[in-house]
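Hello again,

I reread your note about wanting to compare the complex against the isolated chains. To keep things tidy I'm splitting this into two emails, and this first one only covers the full assembly. Below are the input lines as submitted, including protein chains and any nucleic acid or small-molecule components. They are followed by the predicted structure of everything together. The single-chain runs will come separately.
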Amino acid sequence: MEKRAVFKSWWLPVLFALPQLVLILLFFYWPVAAVVNWAFTLEPPFGGAAEFVGFANFKEALSDPFYWNSVVVSLIFATVGPFFCIFIGLTLALAVDRQLPGSGFFRFFYILPFAIAGPAAGMAFRFILSPERGLAASINALSPDLWNPAKYGSHALALVIIIFIWKWSGYTFIFLLAGLQSVPRALGEAAAMDGAGPFRRAIDVQVPLLAPTLFFLLVTMMTEGFVGADTFGIVHSVTGGGPNHGTEVMVYRIVDEAFQGLNYSGASAQSIILIGLIMVFTFIQFRFIEKRVHYK
Amino acid sequence: MKIFALKTVLAGLMAATTLGAAPAFAEKTKFEFWYGLSGDLGERVQDACKKFNDTQTDFEIVCTSQNAYDATLQNTIAAYRAKKQPAITQIYDAGTLDLMLSGAFIPAKKLMADNGYKIDWNNYFGGIANYYATAGGELQSFPFNSSTAMFYYNETAFEKAGITFKPETWEQVEEAARKLKAAGYECPLGFNFDTWAIMEQFSAIHNQPIATKANGYQGLDAEVVFNKTKFVDHVKFFKKMQDEKLFVVKTKQLGMDIVPAFTSQTCQMMQTSIADHGTVGKTLPEGVKWQATMLPVWKGTERKNSLVGGASLWVMAGRPDAEYKGAAAFLNFLGQPEMVQWWSTVTGYIPVTKTGFDAMKANGFYDKAPYKGRELAIASLTYTPTSENTRGIRLGGFTQIRKEVSTSLEAIFMQNADVQKELDQAAERSNVVLRRFEKTYAGQKLN
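Full-complex prediction:
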């Protein structure tokens, strides 16, 4: 029989948990309930009679070809972005973890981009990589339209993803570096004595032991890619969803419809679909990927 | 030590809060005004508030910037739903219909009559007032910062290219563009995908409808028709000019929007708001001659008045009566000719009343640089009395409709999409927006 320390009364633990419960209720469940209510009704923005319309808001969203376009754009954004964030963060963490001269400086240096707000980074990159001025202008001088995010949707999508990666690689870097530091040194040293170089040690020893951290980052980064404030902020400040819906991620579309178009009902319906999509993704991740993760 | 510091802070807070409620201030009725302007223009609004407060012993206006027009509308909605709305809020042209149907405001005329102000409502320019009035002509909000679109050109470049005429028709614009191109100018005319000048103003001055039912004034069941008017030909003309590299796209995504392109002398012509008049004058190097004139029309067109842009002030319902006295005093204050002139001088917005405009003319305001030429905006707005197609645009979800059109322009000019097909699609999608709006306000009638 396992030894367990339990509270005798039921109210004391509830009391301890109360602040957190109230916060979650207030800032999560209540808004979600409001969104659900809104998704099934049509209500004028200033209030008034809310008419129940069943699934009409969902039908309208799902029958719009540009809605499906935004789902595809979001999927690309939320897979490509996090993949490179984790890959780059891991590479940098492995390098810094070797504790070569200057490691301390780089540990600080690589985190810096994460301290910059997404929209601000977006503005900067919009200038740096604008096709007619800035750095990219010299690329276009070789051959016109080699790089033109104002013209090609694919270039624009690449641009916003690059900004996302630039910022969030610093975040994955912190976690992976911390993870690496908990990998026992002895394992690496033993492998080195057996003649394994830094690459082999990284692939066969360090990365497998980082699996829990990598899994955690996969889940959080994909969620960030789908609904993160930066995903919206970067798209909003760089492309405004254009050219011609090329970078219209789901969360941008929702904010735009709600706050520019005052179509709260349609935006709420789309929010619910997005929440559902994230739940499905997280479920898949836990069901199929987590099986390969060993925590001990 | 720490405790001492804490105590000091607490004491300070106490002092601050009690001071705030001190009797010296208690006599004044405070009321709130939310506005969407920011930066330099936002500062000027604060100046206006201060001027008002300095003349007042009974009221104090508290002015808060919400940083953007859409945010102001959004925050006003949220505040109204939470019963914490400001007494006065600034709502942009595209949000007018949402406010009108909300029932959440006090009509301008009622407010002033209730509080004993006699306002000559005919003093507002018809082209401005009608945008914010019901179809029956009842003004619902107070025109505040108003503008219209103008055509700007670089006179120095024109002289160098040997152009001796003024661009009054699009045929002349084309001719000027060809001459500028021949003289070595890479970008004769810069344009972007903002629909305000190319669609809305173009349609008004060419007497073309944007939607049925008098652009929506006569009913929520209006449908857009911009895909069947001269606007389509106009877009085709722009496309042809772009293909010949005479008209050049300038957006912030490409690196530079039209106004910086004009002021850096990259582009020699553009259509933009009169509100940019000040910026252009300040930014172009000394010695460069430039002009802002009325938007060109197609040859043989009978020109009509252009549309007003900008925002108006709405008085929200549900505040204590005392605040309305203050609000009425503030709005009356803004309407005084000297305030109209001050506001127009420091911002570049046009005066909204005839007496304000006359006072400025009499003072010689428009006679010399840098304000010379701004009177043409009034001339453009008042060119003809307003008619069905030039009164304004009263369509629900108009921000989204603008976006649909602007996206199709992007597809046409950046990705070579077919003009008619794209505009048809924009119209179809806009009508979906209109139908949803109609359903949201089911049973409501425009009066």
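For quick reference: The two ends of chain A are 23 Å apart (CA to CA).

B.
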